[in-house]
Amino acid sequence: MAILKIENLHAKVEGKEILKGVSLTIKGGETHAIMGPNGTGKSTLASVIMGHPRYEVTEGSITLDGEDVLEMEVDERARAGLFLAMQSPAEVPGVTNSDFIKTAMNARLDEDNKLSLFKFIRSYDKAVSELKMSEDLPHRYLNEGFSGGEKKRNEILQMKMLKPSIAILDEIDSGLDVDALKVVGDNVTEMKGQDLGLLLITHYQRLLDYISADTVHVMMQGRIVKSGGVELMKKIDTEGYEWIKDELGIEDERVITEEDEERIMLGSCATKEALEK
Ligand SMILES: Nc1ncnc2c1ncn2[C@@H]1O[C@H](COP(=O)(O)OP(=O)(O)OP(=O)(O)O)[C@@H](O)[C@H]1O
Ligand SMILES: [Mg+2]
């Protein structure tokens, strides 16, 4: 069973520290949910796990089954079993949806074990129908002109085909209508039966009506500040985040950077000066 272990992870983008000490362990078969106000570092955590080149890890570690993930290239991470369904999947004109998935699948197999076209089409068609997707999507360019909900479903299609051991779903529920949410939820739940470790990033408890979670974490200021059971998410759903901020003495939950602080200071000095005149 896979174990993804994140310890005291710090990461920067363009010189600004966004992640400030994230620790989290996800085992195969477990589902963790991360919530948190906007701009607190949730998607950044997902990007850093997958190896997005814009983010620089400055401290801490990520291992998958004891292997150093931070030493792996992006494609190696995917081959090792990590998967990310992005909050805003990119459009890739010129590459068809089915070619993209086939290339990604073949990249995970050795030279002698490459997938036959027949096998690929059969499992692809099965996944398309299980996700109740329209039949022309495979032949269209990756995400180009896809509706918001189609893009999200397409991320799950890739996940079904790639069969990761650890999957991160970043706001998979946003943009899905109620029926689509159920379809996606059923498909993800089915994969959970195969020892999949899941990290769900979401703003709403509703997602957990479709995909049950074991643990809920709250992210603020670039780190996990609180963890609990599903009741924690229920409480946030009805009461918001203020009580957590009060409890922990957090004034601003966002990832505040030195630059921001400087700007705020300069701004208030300028206002003071103007007032004094
Ligand atoms: N590539 C980048 N360049 C500049 N700033 C970035 C970059 N990536 C993230 N940030 C900043 O880091 C902070 C955290 O962003 P992130 O996308 O991780 O937030 P989030 O918790 O996922 O928020 P949301 O709930 O709105 O999706 C934001 O202030 C964002 O602007
Ligand atoms: Mg986000």
CATH topology: Rossmann fold
Cα distance spanning the termini: 68 Å
**Averaged pLDDT, please?**
92
**If helices are DSSP runs of H or I spanning 4 or more residues, what is the number of helices?**
10
Structural class: alpha/beta
Describe this protein's structure.
It is a single chain. It is built from ten helices and twelve strands. With 277 residues, the chain is of the alpha/beta class. It has a single domain, classed as 3-Layer(aba) Sandwich (Rossmann fold). Strands 6-9-10-3-11-12 form a six-stranded mixed sheet, with helices on both faces. The chain has a four-stranded antiparallel sheet with strand order 2-1-4-5. A two-stranded antiparallel sheet has the order 7-8. Magnesium ion binds next to α1.
How would you summarize the topology of this molecule?
Elements: E1 3-13, E2 16-27, E3 31-35, H1 42-50, E4 55-64, E5 67-68, H2 74-80, E6 82-85, E7 92-96, H3 97-107, H4 117-130, E8 141-142, H5 148-162, E9 166-170, H6 178-192, E10 197-201, H7 206-210, E11 215-220, E12 223-228, H8 230-239, H9 242-248, H10 258-276
Parallel strand pairs: 3-10, 3-11, 6-9, 9-10
Antiparallel strand pairs: 1-2, 1-4, 4-5, 7-8, 11-12
Bound molecules: adenosine-5'-triphosphate and magnesium ion.
Magnesium ion binds next to α1.
